[in-house]
Specification:
The chain is an all-alpha fold. Helix content is 85%, strand content 0%. The protein has a domain of 168 residues.
């Protein structure tokens, strides 16, 4: 039996790789499909993220006998209120702080140049390669700032090119909230009862994994952003609101994101005052300890069951392959893939009832 299963596994593997190779050879046929998927990806992904965040609210309202349509409309009113508050009370001060930071970039470069010269004068020996590298970085800080600004404006231009896609997000979100609960019964209606039961279990597990990650990560990031904002204001750090929001969004990247957000905050703190830099570093460490030891375990639990080393490896690989979007989506994609493989493994190894084996 073991040899028979191994032979079937090898046959399936060969067939899968053959299909992948044929798809690669005939890629020109699927290119229009890829273009279509890319066109609708933004509204679907955006609406999907909002769906997992807002659907519990709609379900809670429905639990209290509020009609689902009314609950959806109330959630939309809440989203409009959040957008209004952001546009009028958060975005203007963040934009002002960002403009001041860019204006102060030359002074920061001069400050670091003076620090390097002071340190250089007190050293008896510095390797020429190290000295040349540091001096080159300092001399090109302005160009680095301009490059970052150019990349930022290119990013803003790309965002505006997707405005139409973002306009579609509310429409996708409305129908997801309204009819999302009908998807699993619809998908399983094409299969026999035994296979439909297995497929329903698989889809529910995928939904549970995505829901746990998206809802948990959003709530954890919000808590971290609030803690950073309070801490930055307490120590008098310049650009506190901008840096706290940056930390909030970077916290969406598990494990690595919080430390990425710490770098600019600590540098700006040391530029402002060495003690402010020290206190900023302390605030970052304390916030991450609270998040990792108290908030995340209680909010997200261990639903995903992904080892930290696995997450770091996935993030490094995804960042190199797909950039920032890869950093954001690699963990939930891995969780979904793991759920699917685990499901079919249990079906294949007879760990489920006989009626649920051989799904396809």
């Amino acid at each position: 039996m073991t040899k028979e299963k191994m032979f079937r596994f090898l046959v399936y593997a060969i067939l899968i790789f053959t299909v992948i190779y044929l798809v690669h050879l005939t890629g020109f046929i699927f290119r229009p499909i890829g273009t279509l998927i890319a066109a609708i990806a933004v509204p679907i992904i955006g609406a999907g993220l909002l769906f997992y965040i807002t659907n519990p609210l709609v379900n809670r309202l429905e639990h209290f006998k509020v009609p689902r349509i009314v609950g959806i409309l109330l959630v939309f009113l809440g989203l409009v209120a959040v957008a209004f508050f952001s546009v009028y009370f958060i975005i203007p001060p963040v934009q002002e702080q960002f403009t001041k930071l860019i204006d102060n970039a030359p002074q920061m470069a001069q400050y670091f140049d003076e620090i390097f010269e002071l340190w250089q004068n007190r050293q008896e020996f510095i390797p020429a390669s190290v000295e040349d590298t540091i001096q080159n970085v300092i001399n090109n800080l302005d160009s680095y700032a301009e490059s970052i600004m150019g990349s930022l404006f290119n990013f803003i231009g790309s965002v505006f090119s997707f405005v139409f896609s973002f306009v579609l997000i509310p429409f996708f979100l409305f129908f997801m909230l309204k009819d999302g609960h009908k998807f699993i019964p619809f998908a399983t209606s094409f299969f026999s009862p035994s296979k439909a039961s297995s497929l329903e279990t698989l889809l529910k597990n995928i939904n549970r994994s995505l829901s746990a990650f998206i809802q948990g990560q959003a709530l954890v990031s919000l808590c971290v952003g609030v803690m950073l904002l309070i801490g930055y204001w307490a120590v008098g750090l310049n650009y506190a609101l901008m840096l706290a929001i940056f930390g909030l969004f970077m916290n969406l990247i598990p494990f690595v994101g919080p430390w990425i957000s710490a770098i600019p905050a600590v540098i700006i703190g040391f530029f402002q005052d060495p003690m402010v830099g020290v206190w900023t570093a302390v605030i970052m460490i304390v916030a991450q300890q609270i998040e990792s030891n108290f908030i995340s375990p209680n909010v997200m639990g261990k639903v995903l069951k992904v080892h930290p080393l696995t997450v770091i490896t996935l993030i490094l690989a995804a960042g190199a392959i797909a950039g920032f979007l890869g950093l954001l989506f690699v963990v939930p994609a891995y969780a979904v893939t793991k759920t699917i493989i685990s499901h079919f493994y249990h079906v294949y190894t007879d760990k489920r009832p006989v009626g649920q084996k051989n799904l396809f």
